[in-house]
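Incident log, structure service

09:12 report received: a user says their structure output differs between two submissions of the same chain.
09:20 pulled the input from the user's history:
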Amino acid sequence: MSTNTVNRHPKQYDPLQYRLKLFPVVLAVVSFYIFAALFNANGIKRNIELMKYGRARDICLSLFSPVASFSNRLGLTKFRAMIETSAGDRIRNEKINP
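09:34 re-ran on a clean worker, output below:
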């Protein structure tokens, strides 16, 4: 047995080799929020409409109305509507036993 094979160390961990680049991470996070806003456009718009009347509500509504109409034209809000009807009907029809 030679001493070279016994004392051999594995390759050192290089943190720069496994480092994530900033741009792909930011792109992934931004795209996630864009898709989430598009898929939930009707729900977000309803929540904005429930806000107190005032300047903040008007600004949010004017900024988000085009997003909601774009999402409706693409048909992306159908997924949320299907979930709301299936889960909502089940929740409304459940009887609560004391």
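09:41 both user submissions now match this output. Likely a transient worker issue. Closing.
09:42 reviewer note: The mean pLDDT is 82. Residues 22-92 form one domain.
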